[in-house]
Specification:
Radius of gyration of chain B: 24 Å
Number of strands of chain B: 28
CATH class of chain B: Mainly Beta
Order of helices and strands of chain B: HEEEHEEEEEEEEEEEEEEEEEEEEEEEEE
Structural class of chain B: mainly beta
Oligomer: heterodimer
Number of domains of chain B: 1
Distance between the termini of chain B: 80 Å
Shape of chain A: globular
Largest sheet of chain A: 22 strands, antiparallel, barrel
Largest interface: A-B, 86 and 87 residues
CATH architecture of chain A: Beta Barrel
CATH class of chain A: Mainly Beta
Distance between the termini of chain A: 49 Å
Strand content of chain A: over 45%
Largest sheet of chain B: 4 strands, antiparallel
CATH topology of chain A: Maltoporin, Chain A
CATH superfamily of chain B: YVTN repeat-like/Quinoprotein amine dehydrogenase
């Protein structure tokens, strides 16, 4: 209670002096890379008819996020399952759909893990991230991959691209931060404009932490139950990411983006905090390497072509050094490969009408060191035919998507095919450039992951894909209240209904050791996402930027009327969640304050008190300052994360760190 | 215009604090009188709980008021821990092996007070995973997943001698001065070595393993049947090798397996066994008595409409003193469970709801 009053007080305290001020000043613009956006109606204006939520540089640069997994907590409708600490798995579930329903796209091409079907966003360190965009349904872009159209929602991660003014052709910067629990991060970025065609840049990032944070262990959920102060053990993390990028723009008609990406990490898996026994000897090593290229050519004003290519190799090694099996340890190694090719053509039929056809063909393979499991291959082909009508007032986007999947398991030489047609349709209208209304319907399916299918005691080859249907209504309002300086307010409200059929669930078969993976569940999800932002210029050279999100979700299990969890909220799905971001920018100093709120949730399917996880608020504050030193631009920032030192859990028995401090330094070397 | 700006700004801030007001909801539940009294007459149920959830519980069903309480947590202000695997009543003490929490809890059965929590770890401090218990007239014996049998002295409340047995012991029983331990080898299931197929015999006088008897793939629950016989379940490999019930003659150590009855748990009822099973593929619950000498079986429950209420029969315990049969229902293994109580003839008496995965049910005097 006191904390709430205090937090309210603090926010108001900082707001109070602002009420006395008026407006001034404009921000500086820099030239970005001249990429081709032909039929892309990818306008990220605040009046989008796409159901989109964006976290852009104006927010990302202000808060010392460690990874994309943390950023995702500030997007409406996204529920991040965070196992705590830097190395703790962070996966997203959007609008009550499982993480397998989200496509995670990194600079234009999907990131995949066919073993688990979900992507750990904790692996993407934040240092080079420019923006993240969440499209519910899909983006209306006409030159995108079919895979980005095949999921219930698309989580786009965009990295920073260099920009040069006319006099320079080389830039470099260094970022470093140091924080509680021996957290250290070093990032290096260098970019070079070779000539009028080619630009090259590289980004390196190292993260390291011991993760030995203190936490309060509860021995029961009652008020009188004992507690003890503990230190998180075996929670260390080391991660390295290196990227090499090249961008070539040929006479404004053709461009080529190339990326080589390497990631390596080693971490301790601290396990759930088991009462009276807190040891863990489990470790995980991860390695990812991929090459990707995006080639775009504009034939004329009507016809354009793009191709996406990717080759991926990934390796993971799990070790439990204290297993009670015969060897005395358990060591599992997994190797995944992906070869991916996409071709997309877009054609402008009429002034406001364009069509596109996109096709993805890709091959995935999973191999393991254990002879017991089957190796598995999956060949997929996704094609989509899209139509877009947009006269800037009325927008209609529709597509029909076809999925063809062929699985091959080596163990029993079995081959299986899946075919699925998915329609998507969206209609939107804008009034007077201040108000827009749009709606979409989308039907998607998700294939069972390799783990679901082949990596169990018993294989479940008869498993069907999980199907989801989405209905969404989107209202956006945006208005500039300023006279000669902008003072932009925008609000968007989404109401949705999702229905999941043939949900893939694990149930115990004959005892607790043997679980069957079956198509069993049905889920009904209703929800509302609200996001709002307000940017204005105040007197004394202060800019104000406020962004708030709120989500309501009711995701209930309607599988079996006789079950105790019938009509109960799905595990780890909060009814209420939201975030607030306040940023005051002054030439002298920059102030940012964030709140992330998650309401009560349940750790298991039955919505009873003993399964409940308490609501929490995580407040963070950052002060930063730009200055020049030897003609070099330097940014120095200090932050306090979890300001009130709240002890909370996102996942039961995985305590999150309490109060942390971090100091950040960015230097432009050249 | 300037005012609108501030109204909007404050509105946004107000919005985000609006949802923080939903915070306090469940602040009651602390009406916890520090009970040092003697517990009312009742039934103890050990709920296993879910892996990694710390929700194992010792529950107490009050026979008069019909109230079910998480008695261990209420009295001791701390949870039992993670995965309570077995419970034995010896004189006035409950011995509870908690697998995930690496501990053996000794609880006063009259008051519910924790007498002692003994860590069950090896020389390096690694959890041995205490799994099942049995008792002789003077001692208790604990088997651990790391392959040991450890003596537990109920007078001194301490661990005594230990002996190495087979891979991943699943259960233990005591007959005629000997311990029979089923070695499942369950943790090697995905390696070329695979499951174990032996029962270790340990002489309690010397605490040495005298022999290993080959009984069939993946042996599990084992109990003395009387007439110098022990009975045990063979779980097979869940695909090709089927489930079976096997008996061992403790005088000759001769193994007799003449059936392929699928069962997940059993207890002794007179000259027969009472077993439970749920076949997920056929979606069928079986609760039957089985005459292992004549190889015949029949349905146990006489009251109609009861078997369809039992979703996943899990534990079965027979109390011959009070002539009661307790069958636990693990429902879907992640929701509240139930205990169904019958008389020895299979007539339904009453049932009550517990926490997740009730397994062992017993009645203190």
């Amino acid at each position: 209670m006191t904390k709430r009053i205090l937090s309210f007080f603090i926010v108001n305290l900082f707001c109070l002096p602002l009420i006395l001020m008026a407006q001034e000043k404009d921000s500086i613009k820099s030239t970005l890379l001249d990429e081709i956006h032909i039929t892309d109606s990818f306008s990220k204006d605040s009046l989008s008819k796409e159901s989109v939520s964006i976290l852009d540089t104006s927010i990302i640069k202000k808060i010392p996020f460690i990874s994309v997994g943390e950023m995702a907590k500030y997007i409406a409708g996204v529920n991040v399952k965070d196992y705590g600490g830097v190395g703790g798995l962070k996966t997203i579930s959007v609008r009550g759909l499982g993480s397998g329903h989200s496509a995670v796209v990194y600079d234009g091409i999907s990131v995949t893990d066919f073993q688990t079907g979900q992507v750990d966003l904790g692996k993407f360190s934040s240092s080079n991230i420019k923006a993240i965009n969440l499209f519910n349904g899909q983006s209306f872009s006409m030159l995108q991959t079919a895979r980005a159209l095949a999921f219930a929602n698309v989580f786009l991660i965009e990295t920073q691209k260099p920009s040069f003014d006319s006099l320079e052709n080389f830039k470099a910067s260094m970022k470093t931060s140091y924080g509680s629990f021996n957290y250290a991060n070093l990032g290096l970025n260098a970019s070079y404009k070779a000539n009028n065609i080619w630009t090259l840049w590289t980004d390196l990032d190292i993260q390291n932490t011991k993760g030995n944070y203190p936490y309060l262990l509860h021995y029961g959920y009652g008020e009188n139950d004992s507690t003890s102060k503990e230190i998180r053990q075996n929670s260390d993390y080391f991660g390295f990411r290196g990227e090499l990028n090249a961008f070539g723009s040929f006479n404004g008609k053709t461009d080529l983006k190339l990326k080589a990406y390497y990631f390596y990490s080693e971490r301790g898996l601290p396990m759930s905090t088991t009462l009276y026994y807190l040891k863990s000897a489990q470790r995980l090593w991860d390695e990812n390497f991929f090459l990707q290229g995006i080639f775009t050519h504009k034939f004329n004003n009507k016809l354009s072509y793009r191709s996406h290519l990717k080759g991926l190799y990934s390796y993971s090694h799990f070790l439990d050094a204290a297993s009670l099996n015969l060897l005395g340890y358990q060591s599992d190694k997994y190797y995944q490969r992906e070869y991916y090719l996409n071709n997309v053509v877009a054609y402008k039929i009429l002034k406001n009408l364009s069509a596109s056809f996109t096709n993805d063909i890709f091959f995935n393979n999973l191999n393991t060191s254990s002879s017991f499991y089957s190796k598995a291959n999956r060949t997929s082909s996704i094609s989509a035919l899209s139509l877009l009508f947009d006269n800037s007032k009325l927008l209609i986007n529709t597509n029909i998507l076809h999925n063809y999947i062929m699985d091959y398991a080596y163990k029993d030489n079995s081959q299986k095919n899946h075919n699925h047609f998915s329609p998507f349709v969206s209609i939107g209208y804008t009034w007077n450039n201040i108000f827009s209304l749009s709606a979409f319907y989308k039907d998607v399916f998700r294939m069972p992951s390799f783990n679901d299918l082949y990596f169990n005691r018993v294989t479940f080859a008869s498993l069907k894909p999980e199907k989801a249907q989405q209905w969404n209504l989107h209202i956006a309002f945006s208005k500039d209240f300023g006279y000669y300086k902008s003072s932009l307010f925008s609000l968007s409200v989404d109401a949705y209904y999702n229905k999941v059929k043939d949900k893939i669930v694990a149930v115990p078969q004959r005892n607790l050791f043997v679980w069957s993976i079956i198509n069993f569940g049905q889920v009904d999800i209703k929800g509302v996402d609200i996001q709002s932002s307000f940017r204005t210029y105040l007197s004394f050279s202060i800019d104000l930027n406020i962004r708030a999100t709120y989500s309501y979700q009711k995701a209930v299990d309607v599988s079996n009327p006789n079950s105790l969890s019938y009509n109960n909220q799905l595990p780890y799905t909060p009814f209420h969640s939201g975030s607030l971001f306040i940023n005051l920018i002054h030439p002298f100093m920059d102030f940012a304050y964030t709140i992330n709120y998650v309401g009560k949730r349940f750790a298991l399917a039955e919505n009873i008190d003993r399964n409940m996880l308490k609501p929490y608020q995580d407040h963070s504050i950052t002060l930063s300052k730009n200055f020049l030193w030897n003609k070099r631009k330097i940014n120095l920032g200090v932050s306090c994360i979890n300001l009130f030192g709240v002890q909370y859990e996102v996942v039961r028995n995985y305590p999150m760190p309490q109060r942390q401090f971090r100091i950040n330094l960015k230097i432009d070397l050249k | 215009m300037k005012k609108t700006k501030w109204i909007l700004a404050l509105l946004l801030i107000g919005l985000s604090f609006g949802f923080s007001s939903c915070k306090e909801e469940n602040d009651d539940n602390n009406t916890n009188p520090s009970i040092t009294n003697v517990l009312p007459k009742g039934i103890f149920v050990l709920c296993e709980g879910n892996d990694g959830m710390n929700n194992s519980a010792l529950m107490h069903y009050n026979l008069n008021s019909k109230e079910v309480k998480d008695v261990f947590t209420e009295i001791n202000n701390q949870g039992l821990g993670d995965l309570g695997n077995d419970m034995e009543l010896y004189q006035n003490k409950l011995f509870i092996a908690v697998k995930g929490s690496a501990s053996l809890n000794i609880v006063n059965a009259e008051t519910g007070k924790l007498i002692k929590r003994i860590p069950v770890v090896d020389e390096q401090g690694i959890n041995r995973k205490p799994s099942r218990l049995c008792q002789s007239s003077t001692m208790l014996y604990l088997c651990t997943v790391d392959g040991y049998v450890i003596e537990v002295n109920p007078q001194t409340n301490s661990l005594g001698r230990k002996v190495k047995v087979g891979r991943n012991p699943e259960d233990i029983c005591f007959v005629n001065g000997k311990l029979y331990i089923t070695n499942s080898g369950g943790l090697d299931w995905n390696t070329p070595i695979g499951y174990d197929r032996t029962v270790s015999v340990v002489d309690v006088q010397t605490m040495t393993e005298t022999k290993k008897i080959d009984v069939g793939l993946n042996p599990a629950f084992i109990k003395p049947l009387g007439n110098n016989l022990v009975g045990l379940i063979i779980k097979g490999d869940y695909s090709n090798v089927p489930n079976a019930f096997v008996t061992i003659n403790t005088l000759t150590d001769e193994v007799n397996s003449s059936n392929n009855i699928a069962m997940s748990n059993f207890d002794i009822i007179g000259n027969q066994i009472l077993y439970v099973n749920y076949d997920y593929i056929a979606m069928q619950t079986s609760i039957k008595t089985y005459d292992y000498l004549n190889n015949t079986s029949s349905d146990f429950i006489k009251t109609s409409g009861i078997i369809s209420q039992i979703i996943s029969p899990y534990g079965v315990n027979i109390n011959s003193l009070n002539q009661e049969v307790y069958i636990t229902d693990a429902t879907n293994f992640s929701s509240s469970g139930k205990v169904f109580v019958f008389d020895l003839e299979g007539n339904f008496k009453y049932s009550f709801t517990t926490f997740n995965i009730p397994s062992v049910t017993l009645r203190a005097k």
